[in-house]
Specification:
alpha/beta; Rossmann fold
């Protein structure tokens, strides 16, 4: 009964959403972003000296400011600067207006770069939400601020973490020459990256949302107005993250140790883990994305149409797959929304400089199979020779280990300076040497090759 009642919801909304879908179909594609040379024509104010976070205060000086587009930023230059700059694109993304504190938080997480001798520059981006090209512009603007007002680095490495890895890759595609014809970035480092673009990176979260509703039927509840789950939330919904967490706890008992969950809660959690193939510990974060970030995308990026769908998916791994596939709610992605979202978030693979990636094979947030898709993207874009992928035996997402990142930076710089393309085996050996200075934590798996994305996330009908 639960499934049948829910299944009718999309049909009841068909007429109500027709106008919105037509409007999305007619919405114009956003204009092309400015080039690096065009951005250089804008005069940016010089950053001001600011107190450094305690992690780096004894060894560095810090500068901060707000750029002409409204993004806050933080620049850190170590006293023993090696002459190289890391321009950082942060993960998330967070929703709401940017806050200067975000750049400080990123520095505290990545202080290893400053301790290893690199200058560091990080932007909050001008806005919250899922907009990749704008974030790439803000990142490039910050690089120019560093060059204009701080120093000319010997080498500049563009670093993207998590969602920011997509920002960095997009930025490397967008900004390939400065006004004087030089390359703005000498190499790209992508860590724990969400690297299959908006068209494919979030498919499993759509699947999580609909399978959760099949099991729990409380997001929305039967007493609440129905809406298409692939829009995240209606525009005027007042739900908070705490509200969502309460519903997840009610159905799945995520706030309790496994032994204290009811047998029914344990069964439902196991079904989600087996069907969606994410750990139970990450269900809450992925549901947040599939709720609040989906709403951001639909309401602010794609003109009201949803780029997310699950038509054609065959779900596997539940106690009764036939019943699940017969009853789970189905949504077709809006073609215009898909086009707009892809234009902003998808990658071409046309990156003209060396690219090095790293990911824990058990990353609970950015599936390791996303890297397999990125490799295919680089091959299609003619950049396969400029890509080296590495993997580690980590089950974390936000940070791997202190020696991991200086090892990758060293390998990238040798590739740029000497033309010596690293291999995963060489990087694994080099990391062991880094442990003397930066502590234990090397866990590279030099022979690991991720499976194709569709071996973990089911294929689906696409517009």
């Amino acid at each position: 009964m639960l499934a049948r009642k829910s299944l009718a919801a999309p049909l009841r909304l068909t007429l109500a959403t027709t106008a919105t879908l037509l409007a999305a179909a007619c919405a114009p594609i956003p204009p092309q972003p400015p080039s690096a040379a065009q951005m250089q024509r804008v005069s940016e104010a010089a950053p001001a000296a600011t107190a450094c976070p305690k992690d780096v205060a004894p060894i560095a000086r810090c500068l901060s400011g707000q750029d002409s587009a409204g993004a806050y930023y933080l620049i850190v230059v170590p006293q023993a600067w090696n002459g190289h700059l890391v321009v950082h694109a942060h993960g998330g993304p967070t929703l709401g207006a940017p806050k200067a504190e975000r750049a400080v938080e990123d520095l505290q997480r990545w202080s290893i770069m400053v301790r290893a001798g690199y200058a560091w520059a990080a932007s909050t981006f001008r806005q919250g939400g899922v907009e990749v090209r704008a974030a790439a512009e803000d990142t490039e603007r910050l690089r120019q601020i560093f060059v204009q007002h701080v120093a000319q680095p010997q080498r500049t490495i563009l670093h993207g973490q998590s969602w920011g890895a997509g920002v960095a890759a997009k930025g490397a595609e967008m900004f390939q020459r400065t006004a004087d014809g030089k390359r703005p970035y000498d190499a790209v480092l992508l860590t724990s990256g969400v690297l299959a673009g908006g068209s494919r990176s979030y498919d499993f979260r759509t699947d999580l949302r609909v399978v959760y509703q099949y099991l729990c039927n409380n997001h929305p509840k039967p007493t609440e107005a129905a809406y298409p789950l692939n829009i995240g939330l209606p525009r005027d919904a007042t739900m908070t993250q705490a509200d969502l967490q309460a519903r997840l706890n009610e159905c799945l008992g995520l706030n309790k140790p496994v032994a204290e969950r009811t047998p029914e809660q344990q069964r439902k959690v196991k079904t989600l883990v087996d069907v969606i193939r994410v750990p139970a510990s990450s269900i809450r974060s992925h549901m947040n994305w599939a709720t609040f970030h989906y709403r951001d995308v639909v309401q602010h990026r794609t003109g009201g149409g949803s780029p997310f769908g699950n038509m054609g998916v065959q779900y596997k791994g539940s106690p009764d797959d036939a019943a699940l596939n017969a009853a789970v709610l189905r949504y077709r992605a809006d073609p215009a929304a898909v086009a707009r979202f892809a234009e902003d978030t998808d990658l071409t693979g046309r990156i003209p400089v060396p690219v090095l990636t790293v990911k824990g094979v058990d990353d609970p947030t950015a599936l390791v199979e996303l890297d397999a898709y990125f490799k295919t993207t680089m091959e299609r874009g003619g950049s396969a020779a400029r890509l080296v992928q590495t993997f580690t035996q980590h089950n974390t997402h936000s940070y791997l280990s202190d020696p991991t990142y200086p090892t990758l930076m060293s390998a990238l710089l040798r590739w740029v300076n000497e033309g010596v393309k690293p291999t995963p085996q060489e990087i694994a050996r080099q990391c062991a040497g880094m442990e003397t200075e930066f502590g234990k934590g090397c866990a590279f798996l030099p022979d690991y090759v991720p499976a194709a994305l569709n071996t973990r996330v089911a294929d689906r009908d696409r517009p």
